Amino acid sequence: MTAGGAGGAGGAAGVAGAGAGVAGVVGGGVGGTRGMVGAVGAVGAVRHDLPEVDDFTRPYWDAAAQGRLLLRRCGDCGRAHHYPREFCPHCWAGEDRVAWEPASGLATLYTWSVIHRNDLPPFGTRVPYTAAVVDLAEGPRMMTEVVDCEAADLRIGMALTVTFREAADGVWVAGFRPGQGQSSSRTQEPPAARR
Ligand SMILES: [Zn+2]
Asked: Which residues, chain by chain, have CB under 5 Å from ion ligand 1?
C-alpha cells in the first residue's frame, strides 16, 4: 500500500466519520459517534470527534485522561486488540477471558492521509491534519492521527510514540508523534490526576 492510500477519498471520509483518531473508533465499536452524522445542521451544537463513553469503555477514557493508552488482551489466545471489544475478535473468547492492559505507546506508521477539508464540526477548524493508521508494538492496528510532523516528513514504517490531546473538557484523545523513547511533548501533558 502506498502512502495515503487508505482508500483515498473514501479512506479520508472514513477516518473523518470515525472521529479524530480513536475517539470515534472506540465509540463506533459500541455504537458511538458515527450515528451523529445525520445531526449536522445544528451549527456548533454537534461535535463529531467525541466518544460516547459507557461502562465498558470508561476505563479506556479514564486512562487516556491520565496519559495512558490501554489495550485489550485475550487470556486464551494471548493476542491484543484495538479498538476495545468485550470479546476477543481473534478467537471469540468471552469477556471473562479478556482484560485491559497498558500499551507501550510505541507504534510504526502504516499509512496516512492528510485531510484538507472536513465539513464535520469541529474538524474544519483543524485542517490540515494527518489521519493515520499505525501498527502498535503489541500488534493491533489503530486508526489515529499523527501530530507534530510535516506531511513531507511522513514515512511508512516511521517510529511513533503516543501523545494525548484534550479534545474537550476532560476528554483526551490519543494521537502519535514522531520518535520513540522520548519524554512528553507539550501536547501530551495530561491534566492533574483525576482519580
Ligand atoms: Zn483470543
From this structure: 74, 76-77, 88, 90-91, 93
**What is the distance in A from the centroid of ligand 1 to the CA of 109?**
25
CB atoms within 10 A of CB 2: 7
SS3 108: strand
What is the reported pTM?
0.73
**In angstroms, what is the span from residue 84 Cα to ligand 1's centroid?**
13
How far does residue 149's CA lie from ligand 1's centre (Å)?
Answer: 35
Residue 112 near residue 131 (C-beta atoms within 8 A)? yes
Q: Tell me: the pLDDT tens digits for 11-25?
A: 333 343 333 344 433
Q: Write the pLDDT tens digit of every residue in 124-153.
A: 999 999 999 999 999 999 999 999 999 999
